[in-house]
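ok posting inputs for the alpha-L-arabinofuranose job
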Amino acid sequence: MKRIVALVSATLLSFTAVFAQTFQLDVNLKKAGAPVQTTQYGIFFEDINFAADGGLYAELVKNRSFEFPDDALQGWKAFGKVEVRSDGPFERNPHYVRLSDPGHPHKWTGLDNEGFFGIGVKKGESYRFSVWARVPDGGSSTLRVELVNTASMGEDHFLCQETLAVVGKEWKKYQVMLTPDTTLDKAVLRIFLTGERTTVDLEHVSLFPADTWKGHENGLRKDLAQALADLHPGIFRFPGGCIVEGTDLATRYNWKNTIGPVENRPLNENRWEYTFPHRFYPDYYQSYGLGFYEFFQLSEEIGAEPLPILSCGLACQFQNDDVEAHVHLDELQPYIQDALDLIEFANGPTTSTWGAVRAEMGHPEPFKLKFLGIGNEQWDAIYPEHLEPFVKAIRAAYPEIRIVGSSGPDSEGAQFDYLWPEMKRLGADLVDEHFYRPESWFLSQGARYDNYDRKGPKVFAGEYACHGKGKKWNHFYASLLEAAFMTGIERNADVVHMATYAPLFAHVEGWQWRPDLIWYDNLRSFRTASWHVQELYGRFRGSNTLSLKMDGANVTGAEGQGGLFASAVLDGSRIYVKVVNTADEARDIVFNFSGLKKKELVKAAGGVRLSAGADHLDMDNELDHPDRIHPETFDFQGEGKSLQTQVPAYSFSVFVVEK
Ligand code: AHR
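and the output
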């Protein structure tokens, strides 16, 4: 409540009695509250918006194995005498191309690859070109490999060129490094027969930057992986989302197809290829080059607990009304076995079947999997029916694994009300809630978790984002309301154990869904205001909650609270107080710290603030202005049992206080 109070300011106005309209926030330091889980804030990865191939996965060649089903040469431009054949060396990707003499000395045979919206390359950096090849009739054959700018007005097209000699009848992997002399976001990879033009076979044509995240050969785009690490994530959910379910069961995410040598991981149709008729992407497939091994490895490298989500045998329920689209209960066993095998793949000894596969791939140590989700956004009785046998089998074999169930696609309503008790009945450890909701919803949900059942499953707020009404793009105001909502997550850390914004990534030329956390083109990327909100929560996570009240009530943007949302946590001798001001005017605030010994004082130790200014609420960062909105430190000083300050209109502030 607003109050007229006499203040002895600990900061600007020390020892001067002033009358001011202030909001009193009472922080009780007597007792540390619930532990804040290390998994509290994390990331949700789904291959939507070209997040994997064309995004985080650093492969630059599209359709590298000539397996796109509508056209084996989709993404390629063939010239001269090129034949697609299907008895290649990789059983699950059998297609390859044969390049032969075009039959005239002034004709040429070769292939151009267009990449994902072009191939982005940087001047002076090295790119590893590799290809499996053979000379079917024996002897040797010479290839020219180039990165070209087909739009160039220059004397020649190439940014760099190398020759590659292929020798012998056996399939072998060849490699050559390319170093372009120009930076270009839409280069083309060109390969053509030269020299004697001896017939040659090519398979799995690949191009990676040498400089990937942590230097892995089958690696990740460095700037994008860094943007994940910089969030300080505690949990990493993968591989989605609806992609887990598939438009039909045949196209569901099948983790077993995503491990082992990349050359033999079969292609999958990406369910986001045609989900939205207003944004078709007919060349959207999953190479599975970024597969479960890579996801586990990335979790480890960014310090987050892995949280895989597996199909429960239900195809996407938004897209399938016919019950026959789903697996019958009596045919569910292979799906259950997939879940058990995944746990063995992650954690099993190297002597176990799947543990040996992990070791063979280069990680003999277990990945220490603790959490497993079964089903994505499922609903109706068919979901608990399918989930139950999974729970029984996992509990029997791996009682230590914590199982994540779902409350469906809605933040409230009939399915939500039905599924929560069902999850409790089945003994799910966590329930995955999803909410893509407008401003009004976020403004009204500050107290959402304050009265949740403390004895039931914990909450995993597994997909959420503020979708502005009529403003379904990234903008600062939406991120501010996410920050406001997250004060309720923080306050209720005893019941909300995980929260992940969604979706994570989007290519500016390939998106199906927005807003998203991180955007990029072929060379650049930027972190949105929502990213900065997540980063601040991750950075100032703390170890335990602290009670923070205004007139004895939680600060949830409720009537009379001046549009303020607030929460506090303890971190050793530090206290982090988060205050979100959603109002259009600044608010004067006094923090009152109780629970201190008589002579004990607290000391303000600065703060960090995210704000765009009242005139820029619809604005966000963009490729040309990647850092327009970012947190800035502010002056917050003083000592006492109370500290006075002010929060600007439309701002998210983290105050640091020392005991
Ligand atoms: O994040 C995009 C989609 O939203 C997810 O795939 C799905 O779970 C939800 O409907």
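notes: The CA atoms of residues 164 and 539 lie 48 Å apart. The first strand starts at residue 3 and ends at 8.
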